[in-house]
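Hi! If you just cloned this repository, the fastest way to understand the data is to look at a raw example. We've pasted two of them here, unedited. The first protein comes first, obviously.
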Amino acid sequence: MMEIVTKYFTGLTDQQLDQFGRLGSLYEEWNSKINVISRKDIEQLYERHVLHSLAIAKIIQFTPGTTVLDVGTGGGFPGIPLAILFPETSFMLIDSIGKKIKVVSEVASALNLQNVKAEHVRVEDVNQQFDFVISRAVTAFPKFVAMVRTKVARVNNNSLSNGILYLKGGDFEEEISPFKQQVKVYDLQSFFQEEFFETKRLIHMTLKNK
């Protein structure tokens, strides 16, 4: 059902269409060996994982040369779909669970994604900075901010200020209240019509390191 991608993202190249089209069979194959996606969700892969990841592209078009760190990437979300969409952006996908990174590496290799680097490492042990840190709700937001705030570069090269792009569902007003001045929240239902996105949000938080 990759048509849900082309419904919202037009002008994809033949290579991108091929890469998105192959995601379904690749994840079915790898998920049967190493479970990284629930059985219910693998049937809804394109809606609940691929399109959900691509929500980030509804608020920013990464400029060539942008660097992005995907923390707690799991099976490769949101990093893999975004890497297909932005081939001139460099993505580092990390997870503390080695078998998940195995899946990420194999999928990236099968799709020939030259702009993806997958590493079995904790974010605390990453010794470089990036324009953006992305994630899909790996922990409570204040804890996530504390984990990644030193990983964001100072110089802005995009339409949005450098910082965090965080996909999250449900009620999280209390979690973001300490950061009100630095945060903007986007409702995903304003981008996508499907019922799944009614409670989904995207948080952009500006981080400025001295």
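Ok, and the second one:
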Amino acid sequence: MTFELFLQHLSNALALGSLYALIAIGYTMVYGILRLINFAHGDVFMLGGYIAFYGITLFFMPWWAAFIVALGLTGIFGIGLERAAYKPLRNSPKISIMISAIGASFLLENLATVIFGGRPKGFPAPAFFNEVVHIGSVSALFISLVIPALTAVLLTVLLVVVHRTKTGMAMRAVSTDLAAARLMAIDVNRIVSFTFGAGSVLAAIGGVMWAIKYPQLNPTMGMMPGLKCFIAAVIGGIGNIGGAVLGGLLLGLIELMIIAFLPTLTGYKDAFAFVLLIIVLLVKPSGLLGKNQIEKV
């Protein structure tokens, strides 16, 4: 493999890893606050893509307006999902919340099949996103450059919010001890809603970018990316935002590079994530950037 071809594959891996990172951040934020795995997060990712699709094709919105509407509605939906499926069970055993999350995921997938139809739909991506950009001897689609840049900007904004604002301070307090945060007059419900809303917006951005890069929508499109992004969050250290980004980038890099070097393994590419998860958990159970914690009962 030539160096130019390596850089070509690296650009594609960086774009895929950045998409994984965007979705993994939502998993890790929710887990960091509530110690909850939101298994419906991949379906929220799917919903963002469909809302943008219908905004463009049914309501004839400009692509940028459809994208903004998709982010807003998906964020609101994420907040509503938390209040309907998770908030009533907040003081219940963890297994009850996990079952509710799995049920919410299946419900969303089947509702999407009924409402949107099971036939895949081609996403009307703006033409300039698919223009080829030449950087030296490396060629890449413009969207493959936009995704990592957008991920870097969103990660920076999120870290500023978490570490430099009162809302972020409250999020860290709730993450440390929810009961003590209530005693300190922190509105826990508002912080949880903000967390779900922000995570859902990031998932919607990931869904729209995914639909542009891989222009096909179907009701189960969030299942496998959702699983992989959960794995990415665990690999990086679930509960750690930087770890989620690291896990997503690492997963995208390994997945595409193995296929590039060993094309005969293309049919097994979805298995690479699970193999990597097993290896990381055997070597460092808390994840690459995670810290060992005692689970509270």
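That's it. A detail worth noticing about the second one: The mean pLDDT is 89.
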